[in-house]
Amino acid sequence: MAILSTPRSTVQLASKGRPLKEHLFRIALLASLAIAIVFLTMLVVYVVEEGWPRLDARLWENQPSIRRPENAGIQSGIFGTLWIIGLTALMALPTGILAAIYLEEYADKTKWYNRLIELNISNLAAVPSIVYGILGLGMIARWMQFGFTVMTGAMTISLLVLPIVIISAREAIRAVPASIREGSLALGATQWQTIYRQVLPASIPGIATGSILALSRAIGEAAPFLMLGAATLVRFNPEGVWSNFSVLPLQIYNFITRPQEEFAVLAAAAIVILLAILLLMNSVAIWLRNRYQKRW
Amino acid sequence: MSAQHRTTVSGASRSLARSRPRYGEYVVKAVLMLAALVSIATTIGIVAALLEPTIEFFGEVSLGEFFGSTTWGPLFSPPAFGVWPIIVATVEITLIAVVVAVPLGLAAAIYLSEYASVRTRKIFKPVLEVLAGVPTVVFGFFALTFVTPVLRDVFPFLDLEAKNALSAGLLVGVMIVPIVASLSEDSMAAVPNGLREGSYALGASKMLTSVRVVVPAAFSGIVAAIILAVSRAAGETMIVAIAGGFKSVFTLYPGNEMATMAAFIAQAGSGDASVGSVAYKTIFAVGSLLFIMTFAMNYLSARMVQKYREVYD
Fold it and tell me: Which domains does chain B have, with CATH numbers?
C-alpha cells in the first residue's frame, strides 16, 4: 500500500541523464566506422592525385612498355581482364547457380555426402587465392597442358569465385518462402517446374546481386595470376582463349615493382581505372538489391 | 478427363505417386548434383596439385632441415630450407592485422547491430562492402607509397625499412575489418530480442546490454568470424608481397622487411624457377603448409558457426 501511495514523481525508472560512459561508448563505436570512411576517402584521394597526370587516352590506347614508361598504357590488361571475366561469367555463374539449387531444393541434409559438400564449400571460400594459383599451375596449366593461356586463367578464377557464387545464390533461393513452393506443388507442378517457374524468377534479383559481387572479386584478384605466367609485361591483347594474357591488377603489380617514378604514377592511374570499374559494378549490385528486394 | 478418371479408379488402389516415373526430373537432379560436385573436385584438385611435388620435395630436403633450421633461401645458391623465418613473418603480420581489425570490426558490428537506425545502416553498410571490394594490390600500393613514408616521417625512431612488416600488417588488418564486422554482426543479429529485453527490464543500460548480454550470446559466432579473418590474413599475398617484401631474415622486429609464406610463393611462382628443380618444388611444399594451416582454421570456424546456430534456431 505504501508503494502504491507514493507520489508518481519519485518513482523514476530512468536514470537522470545518460551517464558519460554510455556517450563515450557510442562515440567510440561511431569512431571506428568513421575510421573506415576516412581511410577509404584518403585512399581514393591519394590514388587520384597520384595518377592524375596519366589519366588520359594514352592509358587505354597504348600498350605497357618498359623502355618508355612516360607513354605506356594498360590496354592489354584491360582486354585481358575483359576476356577473363567474360569466360568466368560463362563458367562459374551457371555452375554455381545450379549447385546452389541442388543444395537448397534437392539435397537431403541428413545424408553425409550433402553435409560434406556444404562443409567443403565453406572451406573453399576461405582458401587463400594464391593456393588457387597453385591449383591452376599444377592441374590446369601443367597436368591438363592448357599452358599459360586465357583459358587457364579463366578456369582458375572460376574455381576461386565458385564458392562465393554458390553461397550468395543459396541465400537468395532460401529467401523465397516455402508457401510459394507448396502452392506450386499443390497445383500439380513437378519439383523442377516449381523451381524453374516459381523459385528462380523470385530469386533472380538476389542471385544477380551476388553474381555481380563475385565477379567484381574476380576482377580485383591478382595473386593466382602470378602463378600463371601473367606477371610479365604482355604487349598485345588476347586473340582467343588460347592466347597469352595479362590482367589489370597484375599489370599494376608489375608497375609497382619497378623503380622508376613514372611507373608509380602509371600504377596509380591504372588503379583509378580499376576502382572505377569496381565501384560501378558494386553500385549496380547495391541498386539491384534495393530496387528488387522483396519482403515476403 | 480428370472427372472421368476419378470415377473409374477405385479408392483403395489410388496413389498420389505417378505410375510412370518422370525421367526428366531425375536428369535435372543429376545435373544439379554434378554442379555441386565441382566443389569437391576442386578440393581434390588442390590436394592433388600440392601432394606430388611436396612428396618429391621432402625426398630431396629432409623434414629435419625444413622444420629444424632457421635459414630460408631456396632461391639462393647454396639454397637453405629452414622454413621458420617465413612462418614467423606470417604469424607476425597476421597478429598486427588482428590487433587492427578485431577492435575496429567488433565496434562496427556492435554499432550496426545494436545502435544504428535503418537509415544509418543504409549509409554504413555499403561503406564496409566497398572496403571489402577494394583489390589487395591497391592496399599494397597504398601501404608502400603512402603509409610507410608517412610512418617514417611521423615515427623516425621506428627505423622502418622501405618495405616492412608493420605497414603490410596494418593494411592486411584494414582488409579483414569487413570480414570481422559483417560476420560478427550476423551472429549478433541472431541473438533473440528477448535477451535484450530481459536485460533492459533488469535496469541495464544499452552499453551494458551490448557488452554483457549480446556479445557473450554471440560469442562463438564472433570467434568464428575472427578465426576466418585470421585465415584470410595468413593467406593474403599481394599486400605482403608489395609492402612487406621478399627478404627472409630470421627477425621479429616489425620495422624490418620480411617475406611471409604467401609472399614467398608469389616470388618463386612469378620468377623463372625451372620446372622440376628443388626451388620449384619448394613452392608446393610451402603451399601445402599454408593450405593445411588455413584449412584447419576454416574448419574450426565453420564448426563454431554450426554450433552457435544450434543454440537459437
Answer: 72-312 (1.10.3720.10)
